[in-house]
Specification:
Layout: E1 2-7, E2 12-19, E3 23-31, H1 33-39, H2 44-66, E4 75-81, H3 85-102, E5 106-110, H4 111-117, E6 135-140, E7 145-152, E8 155-161, H5 167-177, H6 184-192, H7 217-232, H8 240-268, E9 274-278, H9 285-297, E10 301-303, H10 308-311, H11 315-328
Parallel strand pairs: 1-4, 4-5, 6-9, 9-10
Antiparallel strand pairs: 1-2, 2-3, 6-7, 7-8
Bound molecules: 5'-O-[(R)-(carboxyoxy)(hydroxy)phosphoryl]adenosine and zinc ion.
Length: 350
């Protein structure tokens, strides 16, 4: 089954064609990152206008690269929310128009289910093994930080969530405090590569609770006070080595907190066979190596999105999720979904 996926929930415009929820025949991503480097963040109105300009070219390229004709597409999957409303409308309007003109089924997909499906994506020639349920998935992005225990693509439960900021937000806000360029997460991670991660102490959030929830706002505040105190003591925080070590210590604290709560979850869900880490922050090298070690210790298979572009927002994961929904929840096909900027978390697996 060939699914054409469309994702436009934030600043990216992406169109992909995926076969049977796994083999990525094409995945085109147009990013307006360069524009937002100038503004230091996403300007919603501008993002949506860029998406209107890019959508048709992305669609054409996705079809050309996959060497697939519209008549061979079996269904269209599109991100229905959450996201920036104008951006979501560009994607869903395109998807609705294509479904009507090509006479194809339309599947509206929750953005998070896309991320949860991203560990299934592979290149057509790859013969790596299929993930096996039950799967414990940590989804860490700029908008959410959730832990899911699933026995199939669409059944299971949310096992934990952040009580304040998302993990990606912690990276982004930390980068802003350190004066690093947008996008903050990758900038901070790059700088951290050259620093000493034990140089500065950060607290361990929620360490007194046996919870599977997360909290990042305290880490961000600690960083703010650390910078204030260092400056007060006459230390130049803009000196490269100092800044790199602050970044490395802060990144390590985020990862330590994620690992601590993942450990609790692994004990709470002993039936889990695999640990998956998805979402934009899953591109982080330190997080990948820490999670690999944790999974090994617990005898779990660990998986991350197989390519960096499948960690951050992309249409291939939406096409995969559309396929899994069509298999497990056929009522999702042609469901008259609304485009919701703040989609309910209860609807992720629905
Ligand atoms: O999943 P995503 O592309 O968009 C949302 O759905 O939010 O995630 C974007 C987030 C941003 O906060 C970005 O800073 C973070 O992922 N991110 C990273 C890295 N690459 C992206 N954070 C840490 N290290 C990275 N290498
Ligand atoms: Zn995302």
């Amino acid at each position: 089954m060939y699914i054409l996926g469309i994702e436009s929930s934030c600043d990216e415009t992406s169109v992909a064609i995926v076969e049977d929820g796994r083999a990525v025949l094409s995945c085109v991503i147009a990013s307006s990152l360069a524009d937002f480097q100038k503004t230091g963040g996403v300007v919603p109105e501008y993002a949506a206008r860029r998406q209107v300009e890019c959508m048709n070219a992305c669609l054409q390229q996705a079809l050309d690269r996959a060497a697939i004709k519209p008549q061979d597409i079996d269904a269209i999957a599109v991100t229905r929310g959450p996201g920036l409303l104008g951006s979501l409308l560009v994607g869903t309007t395109t998807a609705r128009a294509l479904a009507a003109v090509w006479q194809k089924p339309l599947i509206g997909v929750h953005h998070t289910l896309g991320h949860l499906s991203s560990t299934w994506l592979a290149q057509p020639a790859e013969s790596n093994t299929q993930p096996q349920f039950p799967v414990l998935t940590l989804s860490v992005s700029g908008g959410h930080t959730d832990l899911w225990y699933r026995t199939s693509h669409t059944s299971g439960q949310r096992a934990g969530t952040t009580r304040d900021d998302a993990a990606g937000e912690a990276f982004d806000k930390g980068a802003t405090l350190l004066g690093l360029p947008y996008p903050g997460g990758p900038s901070l991670a790059k700088l951290a590569d050259n620093g000493a991660e034990n140089a500065y102490a950060f607290p361990s959030p929620l360490s007194k609770e046996q919870t599977t929830d997360f909290s990042f706002s305290g880490l961000k505040t600690s960083l703010k006070y650390l910078l204030r105190d260092l400056k007060r003591d006459g230390i130049d925080c803009d000196q490269y080595d100092t800044k790199a070590s602050i970044a490395a210590s802060y990144q390590a604290a985020i990862c330590r907190h994620l690992m601590a709560k993942l450990s609790v979850a692994i004990d709470r869900y002993p039936q889990s066979r695999e640990l998956h880490i998805v979402g934009g922050v899953s591109a982080n090298k330190k997080l990948r190596s820490d999670a690999t070690r944790l999974a090994e210790r617990h005898g779990l298979v660990v998986r991350f999105p197989s390519k960096g572009i499948y960690s951050t927002d992309n249409a291939a994961m939406m096409a995969a999720a559309g396929y899994f929904l069509s298999q497990e929840k056929p009522e999702a096909i042609n469901h008259p979904f609304m485009t919701k900027a703040t989609e309910n978390v209860e609807h992720v697996l629905a």
